[in-house]
UniProtKB/TrEMBL annotation:
GO terms for molecular function: D-lactate dehydrogenase (cytochrome) activity; D-lactate dehydrogenase (NAD+) activity; FAD binding. PANTHER family: D-LACTATE DEHYDROGENASE, D-LACTATE DEHYDROGENASE, MITOCHONDRIAL-RELATED. It comes from the Bacteria. Belongs to the FAD-binding oxidoreductase/transferase type 4 family. GO terms for biological process: lactate catabolic process. Pfam families: FAD-oxidase_C, FAD_binding_4. Keywords: FAD, Flavoprotein, Oxidoreductase, Transit peptide. This is D-lactate dehydrogenase (cytochrome).
């Protein structure tokens, strides 16, 4: 992308002033316009600068959301949903000003249906809070991005996590949403039936739309049974190619691995230092298996044979909950571990995804790019589905540092697209990858614009994200 793609658009000053007055009168202290509140609701982990909303509404119900959307629609003022604020590509920035709707108070689990393995939650519920709520049911929600993100935000960015290879991404685990549309109406996209051929798949339309088509007010999720037995472990390899070969063989042999994560040498060094571990500092796979007392040892043994065939070290697995937690906490802390390598530098987390047959090529070429340009960028990836992240550390205080980071991201995305991959596997497009979306999908983006025009003709929902309207 170019920074110009993220520049502020045209502000509707008269409309904004009118909406500020309406919401202040309607919501009192639940509507804030102070500088600190505005700053808390506009940020990004890229080189894109924060773009502040003009006010923040702490919504407590769908009726609050409808009232805010109606006011914004009447005066053609932007409205942006805000969950926890962990999105990575500028999704919560207010490019044209407007109103941020904070969902931290819409954090209720509305319904759990254990027999049907589903639940319905408000958008502000976080993934960790949901799993705590579900603990006594024997069920869990599997999608686990590194951050403790809100369910609404995860649905909006079509997020995934370390166990997508087994349980899929948000698009596979959202059964229905309710959303407030531009005319202020609240619609439900589907019932709870596990399959339906009734009309357009509106659920999939809203999941991944990044809040550009409407504001989510509830999400119905598919749940999973907590496995009888869980085992995990790590295995070091002599090269990225050897590790990726092991991943491909594991997937092709149909071993039902629940997690298979790739960490390069630099990331392993960072994790060892940050999490006080003592793993080999070479390309490494972190794995987890879910099943029964009988199947998990068989799965682990099958992978150990594959690892040995690919030149890997000994695969030592454990079912001990404390050891597994330590392993996966280190993986989820990879971002912070990488930052600790150079505390004075900014960190940019960017992702691409390629067919797994091209993962070794893409990661290896990216490593060579990093070394050639003298950069520091640990790599960690969801190897089972070809998705990986570069945690690029750069000087965001200098024009040259920002230019170097931007150029690297451009090369990374061109590389992934050349391998028939995508510019983002799970972070979303936001402001950061609009140019790459055009390169990836070409004329299909024009069809997206037509959908946006039909559902949001005045471009009030999160403008300046995914693509430029009109």
């Amino acid at each position: 992308m170019a920074l110009k793609d993220a520049k502020a658009g045209t502000r509707n000053e008269a409309g904004i002033a009118a909406v500020l007055g309406i919401l202040k009168q309607s919501f009192g202290e639940r509507f804030q316009t102070g500088q600190s509140f505005r700053e808390q609701h506009a940020h990004t982990t890229t080189y894109i600068p924060p773009q502040l909303p003009d006010g923040v509404l702490f919504a407590e119900s769908a009726e609050d959301v409808k009232a805010a959307v109606n006011a914004c629609a009447t005066h053609k003022v932007p409205v942006i949903g805000f969950g926890v604020g962990t999105s990575l590509e500028g999704q919560v920035n207010a490019a044209n000003g407007g109103i941020s709707i904070d969902f931290s108070r819409m954090n209720r689990v509305l319904e759990v249906n254990p027999e049907d393995l589903d639940c319905t939650v408000e958008p502000g519920v976080t993934r960790e809070a949901l799993n705590i709520h579900l603990r006594d049911t024997g069920l869990f929600f599997p999608i686990d991005p590194g951050a403790n993100a809100s369910i609404g935000g995860m649905a909006s960015t079509r997020a995934s996590g370390t166990n997508a290879v087994r349980y899929g991404t948000m698009k596979d685990n959202v059964l229905a949403v309710t959303a407030v549309t531009a005319n202020g109406e609240e619609i439900r996209t589907a019932r709870r039936a596990r399959k339906s051929s009734a009309g357009y798949d509106l659920t999939r339309l809203f999941v991944g739309a990044e809040g550009t088509l409407g504001i989510l007010t509830s999400v119905t999720l598919r749940l999973q049974a907590i496995p009888q037995k869980i085992a995990g472990g790590a295995c070091a390899f002599p090269s990225i190619k050897a590790a990726c070969d092991a991943v491909i063989m594991t997937i092709q042999m149909g071993i039902p691995v629940a997690r298979i994560e790739l960490l390069d040498t630099v990331q392993m060094r960072a994790c060892n230092a940050y999490s006080k571990l003592s793993y080999a500092e070479s390309p490494t796979l972190f794995l987890e298996f879910h099943g029964t007392d009988e199947t998990v040892p068989l799965q682990s043994a099958a992978f150990a044979e594959i690892a040995a065939e690919c030149g890997g070290g000994e695969f030592l697995w454990t079912a001990n909950a404390e050891e597994r937690t330590k392993l996966w906490k280190a993986r989820h802390d990879a971002y912070w571990a990488a930052r600790a390598l150079a505390p004075g530098l900014a960190a940019l987390s960017t992702d691409v995804c390629v067919p797994i047959s091209r993962l070794a090529d893409c990661v290896s070429e990216t490593q060579a790019d990093i070394e050639e340009h003298g950069l520091l960028g640990p790599i960690v990836g969801h190897a089972g589905d070809g998705n990986f992240h570069v945690l690029l550390l750069f000087d965001d205080k200098s024009t040259e540092g920002v230019a170097v980071a931007e150029a690297f991201v451009q090369r990374l995305n061109r590389r992934a697209l050349a391998m028939d991959g995508t510019c983002t596997g799970e972070h979303g497009v936001g402001q950061g990858k609009m140019a790459f979306l055009e390169q990836e999908l070409g004329g299909a983006v024009d069809l997206m614009r037509q959908v946006k025009q039909a559902l949001d003709p005045d471009d009030i929902f999160n403008p300046g994200k995914i693509f430029h309207h009109g």
